[in-house]
Structure formats: structure tokens, C-alpha cells
Write a structure and sequence with these properties.
- There is one protein chain.
- By secondary structure, this protein is α+β, with helices and mostly antiparallel strands.
- It contains six helices and four strands; from the N terminus they run ααβααβαββα.
- A four-stranded mixed beta sheet has the order 2-1-3-4, with helices on both faces.
- The radius of gyration is 17 Å and the shape is globular.
- The N and C termini lie far apart (50 Å).
Length: 148
């Protein structure tokens, strides 16, 4: 009986830890590499501005260079609606936890630039008006002005 109770506690505890796994990993990586964290809330299969953001900015070579140059750690908290695009229960729970913490109004798309401690440095509600080059330059400027 004691073993079963211990096993149940371990499973519950492990599920709680996993809920913030990507963010905690991103914070550690950002701290270790002096990077920022870009957290994006999207509805990849129903939100037209989200789809445009990913196609025109997140998917651009300029944005990808932010990751390879150790400027940002990117996290996408996706909330798809179509059955074929559903996420694992763990990822759904983690995205919901991220939304509770950083997007309680449920704005889509909503993009947040965080420091390695999780403090919000800049946010974009909806589709950013700038193109990928200007968006990336703004992030680089913010990083250059940070005392990491």
C-alpha cells in the first residue's frame, strides 16, 4: 500500500513539474547563454493573424538567425482547434499554464519578449505591424540594451 501511494505521489509531482518544463528550460538556457525568451501564443489552425505571423516573421530566415545567434530562445504556446492538430495532453496543460501566467486575456496572436527571469520586456498584441527585418532588429536592440 505504501508503494502504491508513493508511486501516485511521484506521478502527480512529475505532472506538476512538467507543466512549466519548456519555460524553465528556456529560462536556464537563456541565463546560461545570455539570451532572451520569445513566447508566442497562437492558434495555428484557426487564427489568420497567427498563421501570417508564423509565415512572414517566425518562419523567416532573419528570425531563425535570432535562434542560431543565441539572441532568443523561442517557445510557441499553440492552441489548435482541429482534431487532427491536437497536442499531447502534457503540452496542452503546459500551454494552458503559460497562458494563465502570461496571457490571461486570451489574445491571439500574443508575443512576449522575456528576460531569463521571465520578466516581460516587450509585448505585441495581434499581428505585429512591422516586417520580419524590423521585428528582428527590435529584438536585437532590446537584447543589446539589456544587462544580462
Amino acid at each position: 500500500m505504501k508503494t502504491i501511494f508513493s508511486a501516485i505521489l511521484m506521478v502527480v509531482f512529475a505532472m506538476g513539474i512538467h507543466a512549466q518544463n519548456r519555460l524553465e528550460n528556456a529560462k536556464k538556457q537563456a541565463s546560461d547563454n545570455k539570451e532572451l525568451i520569445l513566447l508566442n501564443f497562437s492558434g495555428s489552425d484557426w487564427c489568420i493573424p497567427c498563421i501570417k505571423l508564423h509565415k512572414n516573421i517566425i518562419g523567416s530566415d532573419e528570425f531563425k538567425k535570432l535562434e542560431t545567434d543565441n539572441v532568443v530562445v523561442y517557445i510557441n504556446a499553440d492552441f489548435p482547434r482541429n482534431k487532427k492538430n491536437q497536442l499531447s495532453p502534457e503540452l496542452k496543460k503546459e500551454n494552458a499554464s503559460l497562458a494563465d501566467q502570461y496571457n490571461p486575456k486570451g489574445i491571439f496572436p500574443y508575443t512576449i519578449l522575456l528576460n531569463s527571469d521571465g520578466k516581460i520586456l516587450k509585448s505585441w498584441e495581434g499581428l505585429p505591424s512591422e516586417n520580419a527585418t524590423v521585428f528582428v532588429r527590435e529584438i536585437r536592440d532590446i537584447k543589446d540594451n539589456q544587462k544580462l
